[in-house]
Fold this sequence. Notes:
Number of strands: 10
Radius of gyration: 18 Å
Distance between the termini: 25 Å
Number of helices: 9
Structural class: alpha/beta
Strand order of the largest sheet: 1-2-4-3-5-6-9-10
Amino acid sequence: MQNIFSCTIPGSTEQPMALDFHYDDAIEQAATIIYAHGFNGFKDWGNFDLIANQFVEAGFSVVKFNFSHNGTTPESPQDFVALDLFAENNYTRQLYDLEQIINWVRNAPSAISSFIDKEKIGLIGHSMGGGISILFASENEAVKALVTWAAIVECKTPWTNWDEEKLKEWKEIGVAYYHNGRTGQDLPMHYQLYRDFIANEERLDIIRAEKKLKIPHLVCHGIEDTSVPLTAAEQIAEAGVATRLFTIASDHVFGRKHPWPEHILPYPMQKVVRENIEFFKQVLLSA
């Protein structure tokens, strides 16, 4: 029977991260898939439980979590209520958070540890979470297989297309704002985000990290993506040594939206999920 074990664990600056572990109590030592959400996202965006349930039905367990500084709290896991945290989010904090998630998986509470094969861990990352997942997998040998959805190719979200004048203003004022069209909020980003990128530019080089990867990597991307163009996926796939590109006629979120009230996934997302499950079966379950 499918179950969900929920808890919080400390992330960057000891901020609590909400975590859900999806598993089948009839399957012991299941390969575990970790999901890393994107910028302006969270673990439950677009009814992610529908995706987690399919992975569990296929014999996997799944961990989804909220990054420590994504603007949510354990009490409000789907709302941006902690804008002070959002303002202090950056790429190295997220890498730290992922390390804490891996440590949790490999040292899981006794109540669920028997349902985890600690040697078979896969990672899925969407958008900015996809870029973070590439960087993390290049540094951490615990990850045995990687899937990215619409992954960024540079750690420059959201200032990729900002001109010099806007960057200068960001530095002078110390804060810039990202408008969330869904919630209507103007979300603050402190200039530390840019400073963190400059201070860690080599470590945060996604193409460099991809070239270092030796594990299988499935790159999934929507042909009609206007947030992260298809050329980003093509660059990542070309740089990898064990990388395969899967494309589909869809957008940045593969047809989903939030909230997603349906009990079935949109066709593009369903195709991606099926492709992911087959990929992980081949590279994790057959190993």
